Every structure is written in C-alpha cells, then in structure tokens.
What we know:
The complex is a heterodimer of chains A (about 280) and B (about 425).
Chain A: H1 4-21, H2 24-32, E1 33-34, E2 45-46, H3 49-56, H4 58-91, H5 97-109, H6 112-126, H7 132-156, H8 160-168, H9 173-202, H10 205-211, H11 218-228, H12 231-273
Antiparallel strand pairs in A: 1-2
Helix pairs in contact in A: 2-12, 3-12, 4-7, 4-9, 5-7, 6-10, 7-9, 7-10, 8-9, 9-12, 11-12
Chain B: H1 9-18, H2 25-31, H3 38-45, E1 49-55, H4 59-77, E2 80-86, H5 89-102, E3 111-114, H6 117-124, H7 137-142, H8 148-151, E4 152-153, E5 156-157, E6 162-169, E7 171-175, H9 186-195, H10 208-221, H11 238-252, H12 267-275, E8 281-284, H13 289-295, E9 303-306, E10 312-320, H14 328-338, H15 341-348, E11 356-357, H16 366-373, H17 384-388, E12 391-392, H18 397-412
Parallel strand pairs in B: 1-2, 1-3, 10-12
Antiparallel strand pairs in B: 3-10, 4-5, 6-10, 6-11, 7-8, 7-9
Amino acid sequence: MKRHPRLLSLFVFITLIIFIIVPFVPLLLSSLSFGWRWPDVLPESWSFRTWEYVLNDGRTWQAVGISLWIALIVTAVNILLAIPAANALVRYPVRGRWLFEAIIFAPIIIPPFISVMGIHLTFLRLGLTETVVGVVLAHIAPTLPYMFRAVMISYQTLSVDWEDQARMLGARAVPRFFHVVLPHLLPGILAGASLSVLISLSQYLITFIIGAGQVVTLPILLFPFVSGGDPGIASAYSLLYAAIAIAALVGMDAALKRYYQLNKASQGQAKGVKP
Amino acid sequence: MKKYPIASLGILALALSACSSGDAGNATDADSLLTDDWGVIQDAAQGQEVNMYMWGGNDNINTYLDEWVAPRMKEQHGIELTRVPMNDAQDIINQLLDEKIAGKSDGSMDIIWINGENFKAAKDNDLLWGDFTGQLPNFNDYIDSDAPEVSQDFGEPVEGLEAPWGKAQFVFVHDESKHETPPKSMAELADWVQEHPGQFTYPAPPDFTGSAFVRQVLYETTGGHEQYQQPAAELEDLEERLEPMWQYLNSIEPYLWREGETYPESLAKQDQLFASGEIGMTMSYDPALAASEVLKGRFPESTRTYLLDGGTLANTHFLSIPFNASDKAGALVAINELMSPEAQTAKLSPENWGDLTALELEKLSPEQQQAMNEVDLGKATLSIEELEQNRLPELSSDYIDIIEKGWTEHVAKE
C-alpha cells in the first residue's frame, strides 16, 4: 500500500515523457540535421540552416506578435461574451435554453470553416477581410464554446446566496461582481482562456480565408512548408509554435498565481488595519 | 495593411459601420497605364506598396524575393515589395473569385504567380487586368513573344495577360552511386523496374509531378505529342488512343514500390522516400530542385538528374496582375524588374533558387549571356543547352483533366 503512490507517480512521469517530450525529439533532430537518411538513427552532421531562416526572417517575429495579439483580443472578447451568457443561462429560467446552448456549442460539432467560407463574401462587402478585426471575429466562433463551457461550470457551483449576503451587507452590483463572483469564476475563466488562446493560435484555414494573406500568423508561415515538403523548416516552425503556446499558458498561469498572492497580501493588510 | 488596429470592442462596431461601398475612381486611371509611356508608369510607381502573392513553401525562393529582389526594388524604384506566402496558387484564384463577386475594387493582390490551370481559371473568369506585357521594356527587349512557350500557357493563349518569369522542365532524379545507368525511355523503364523491383514509383495524380509523369508516358506510348494539339473534345477516338498508356502503367505496376498497391500521395512524400533511400529514383518538374536538395543535405551528394531520349515536358511560369490590383503601376515596374537580366541571372543560381530564365538567351548582350553561362548550376543540374534542346510542349488542361480522372479509373482501381 505504501509503495503504491510512488509507482503511480513513476507511471505518470513515464507517460508524460513518452507522450509530451518524445514527440519533440524527432522535430528537433529534423530541424538541425544535415543529411539525415535511413538507416541512420541520428543525423550524420548538423546544420542551423532551418533555424537561421526561421529566426532571421523578420516576418517570423511579426507573425508571432500578430498571433499572440489576435489570441489575446479573441480571449478578451470571449470573456466578455461568456460571463453574461453563462450567468443568464445558468441562473435564470430561460425559455428555450437548450436552443441557446446548442447555438453556442455548434462550432464544436460543425467545422467552423464551413461557416467562415459562407461568411467570407459578407466580410468582403463589409471590408472586414484582410483585417485583424475580421480575423478576430472569425476566431470567436471556434473558441467561444470552450470559454462558455468553462465559465458555465464555474457558475453552476456558485450559489446565489453568496451574492445575496453581499447585497445585505450593502455591496452594490459592481463590487459584488468583482469581490464575490469574479474570484469564484477565475479558475474557470483561466481554463477557458487557455483553451481559447491555444485554439486561436492554431487556426490556419479561418485565418487564411478571412485574413487573405494580409494577416500573417505563425500557421500561415508554417503551412506551405508542411505541404511543400521542407520538413526541416516545418519542424523548426513547429517547435517555435509549441514554445510560444507553452509560454502563453505558463504566462497566464503565473499571472493568476500573482493575482492570488496580491489578493492575499491585501487581505492580510486589511486585517491588520482593522481595530 | 492595417496590422495593428486599435484594440477595443468599440472599434468593432466602428469598423462595421465605417465600411461603405468601395470607390470606383481609380479603376479608370489604372487602365490608362496600359497605354501610357514607361516614364509615366515609373513615376506613378514611386512609393507604391506592391504585394506579391505566391506559393511560400521554399525557403530559397522566399529568401531570393525578400533579400535579393525587395531591397533592389526599394533602392531603384522606390517600391515596397511584400511577398505574401500562399499554400497553393488555387487559393489565389478562389480569393479573387470571391472579391469579384463581392465587387471589391481595391484588392491587395498586385502581382500573382500562376500558370496552367490557374491561369485558365483566372482568364475564364475575367480575374486578370489586361494585355500589359507589351508595356514592359524587358519583355519587348528579351522575350520572343511569338515563341510557343511564351504565347501559350498549357495550351491556353496568353494574350498579354501574364508575363513569363521562368521556365521549368521535367527531369528524372537518381542516385548515381546506386544506379549507374538509369532508364532513358519508357521502354527501358519497363525493363528497369523488373530488374529493380520496388525501386520506382510516381506520385499519384492529380499530384502535379505525378500527372506530368503520366503525360510523359502518354507521349511515348501513344506516338508523340503532335496529335494532342487540338482540343480534346475534337478527338473522337481519344479513349482508344489513351489505351496503350493505361496498359503500360498497369504493366509496370507490380514492380513498383510496395508492388503498386499504393502510390505516394505527393511529390514531397516521394522525395522523402528517395531521400531515405527507400526508392532509387524520383522526378521533378523543377530541373534544379535536386541540386538544391543536395545543398540542403536532404539528397545524397551523388544525386543526378537526366532527361529522356525523346525529350521531356517543359512549361513556363508567369506573373500576372489581377483586375482589382490597387498598385498597378508598381506591379508593372516590379514585374519588369523581375524580368531584368540581372534578376534572372541571380534567380538562376542554385544558391538563390536555380530557376531557368524566361529570357531568350540570343537577345541578351554578350556580357549578359556570359554572366548567365557562368552561373554554377551544381553537379545535379543539367546544362541550359541540354535542357533547351530536349523540350516537349505541354498539353492543354482539358486533356490533363481527362488523364487524371482516367488514371484513377484505369490504374488505381485495377
């Protein structure tokens, strides 16, 4: 019995390595190899050709910036849309609630590029193609369901009693939201935001159709190399992409931790000041 | 090029309301460019931002445009040339089609890189600007506009709608250290695959290169390319004429890679098989691709290319200007510059790209000819003369459709 948890953690550790670390090894080797041919297990010589191309190209960094920028705006818009929507659908007896939920979750089931191909002409007429705004709007369809679901679950575990109590103590709507509701929702929002950022970062087809070549995100640069047959450069771009996705997740997590720390500190202070 | 719009929700609403129907004012201005003097065009091009939409899957080509061409455009003509990477030229046409339907008059695409079926689709749908090549000094000086490879694009009359940028030719690629005497005709290939079972295959059509291989078979097994110059619909006995080709392809099938049960889905996959030594031959519609793969270390040093004794298919790739390009003067000047002997010589070098020149060698000055001949094409690439002497014309796209569909029917399913 005593050894069991250790065995379990070893098992988890090995699984993590096999499924998360190992897939990156061939990518790294392929991006650094010069003349890597069967049956060699390791490349016979090394070259920085792919990384020189990827890292020296000014467009790479521009694309990284635009990808993150779009993911950030998409996530912010998603938060603003998902909180009121979840609030309404969880807490109020909405008639035809299944219909609203079905509409919000539809993009998970229907591939979003189908709707985007249809919306392309409309966006063209409105002048929204080739703009970041248009791409942001297009990215909301596939990302909102995940944000909405996460926030909805957070709301389901938040009893209205907490807000009622705050109200009885004299808190108005805005402080009530920020001091009672938001702290409870925060882990859910973070989970939704992580998914929203990741999904937005990974969009190729939607970005391509609406951005029409003028909004160049990382996948737009990466894709021609994957299908065009330069595995080295495709590997280098993929690793860069993974690094940025991981950095975004870690950054968001760190921001949440920092928020909790600050909160604790200020609460502590408040306690100290009180008579 | 609004890359960083002000981010806030309010702007979304503003953007939605601020869009009115596009202004039609500059459309008429632009059309006078088709008759203006070159000097006027050059003045109008100053300071324009030209977007060049092109396939973006080759780092050499990308670097040639970003680091060789773009700085010169800026220096010499004050033009800001931006390369826009696309996954497939077909996407360019689809996008233009939607823009045409939506009536977008201020398009972002100023130059597009197309040929073959993409050109035909663009021409049939009126997506191209007009007969502009006669305006380009370098076109008039260095191109023989009556030559079939310039006046026709896969059998489709060009009519000045696109300017030739480079040439490509079908070559076979083999590893000299493994197979010293590769098969130089389809008849020899049939024997070769029997002696070396599993060492040969070709990408499944409609892959561009695989489809070209099948046409190569067509020319040799059905008695030459001359009979296919007329439209496919006018050849009533086409089915029977194609029959020997299907027979040939089925006869070699059992000796192909994986006994012909499956074919590589793309040239990229086939090249991967060749790079890893699993097959002994590959092919390419780019005669310099093998040399550049050797430079990158993907293909072995002993890689060589060769032609068939009866010649191989050749085509020309072109630059064109869409109907709604916003910076047409800049596009004209940029295309002219891309066709200059200096730019074409740089493009020929395998370090930059290795693409064959579109210019007529005899029309160049002796110094310019020398500069071109001095370019070291690399051991894997054949000389320009050898390639030029063995060129066969392409088929028109109606044949290509029939052959690609027929291949699935006659070869893949049997």
